[in-house]
Design brief:
This protein has 393 residues and is of the alpha/beta class. Helix content is 34%, strand content 24%. Helix 5 runs parallel beside helix 7 and helix 8 packs parallel to helix 12. The chain binds MU-OXO-diiron.
Length: 393
Amino acid sequence: MKARRITDRVSLIGAVDWDRRLFDALIPIPDGTSYNAYLVSGSDRTALIDTVDPAFTEVLMAQLADVPKVDYVVAQHAEQDHSGSLGAVLERYPKAKIVCSERCKGMLIDLLHLPDGSFSPVADGDSLSLGDLTLKFLYTPWVHWPETMSTYVQQEKLLFSCDFFGSHLATTDLFAEERRVYEPAKRYFAEIMMPFRGMIQKNLDKLDGYKIRFIAPSHGPVYDKPAFIIDAYRDWVEAEPKNLAVIAYVSMHDSTRHLVDRLIDGLVAGGVGVERFDLTTIDLGKLATALVDATTVVIGTPTVLGGPHPAAATAAFLANALKPKMKYAAIVGSYGWGGKTVDQLAGLMPNVKAEFFEPVMCKGLPRAEDYAALDRLAEGIAAKHGELFGARA
Ligand code: FEO
């Protein structure tokens, strides 16, 4: 795609990756993604904001073919999907300086072996004149790595936010269509940002002091109505979780599935919304997205070789790593002759700051007393939700 104008002096370039389905060899991205770079053309100097994933270097260089001079390359984030073409850009523009945080400089030298003399580090709040445009650099750590910064173009009231506010969405849309981008942006938040909620809140507060007409992230479309994504982030970061129980389970011979079905019946009767995920077929990004809003998380598992099924262990690991706002947790499952399933599963979640209900584990197929225990668990969860959201919320 050719450069597309956001304003007279700021253009979106970069690459759309329609086919990518896994990020960092870890994160499912069913809608593809984009690696956005931006060209800022001041009256005296030109800045390139970020580059693209190394696999798309040729696309970026073709877009720069008729750009005779780049004075600065602003590297907002060292991760290779944005920095991976820096070497090629420096070859093309050998006098260009890489503008980045001091910490980013160290990471870029480690990751890309770029020469020390290429850098011009900036501190939080520093400004850089391009003539009639001024770039102001705002450190926004942990969106996504500790070195990350954003860049504010004062005269255009435009914020380059890198991963912050991004979405893994391959699209030809220059500007975000809100109904289309909401789910990919929420999934992106869940998979990438949720563990850093506290820092994100501080970064959102920091942006409060700036008038913003456009937010231009490094993945997905540009926001020309930035309140939409800022309000969504405030909700995902700060708001209380919703009246939602997430049940993630795996069942080998239906015992655990029977438990889960009974639990869902009890929760729904108690006024609790439920999202149920079969871990053998789940897209883990969907589970992560549900965790953004969940007040309660229940993991269901059979006992395999004395412990939890590996799929259940993955779900526990995910909940532990993503640190959602959940307030309550429970483990249900089955066993044939023994094991340490509950201890091992709970041991995988040391970071989960939730109150754990008494687990329900049945031997073989559930019996009447197991269903009774599940009904008590459902009543207990519903009572807690009732306290938060009102009776039969
Ligand atoms: Fe899009 Fe953290 O890189």
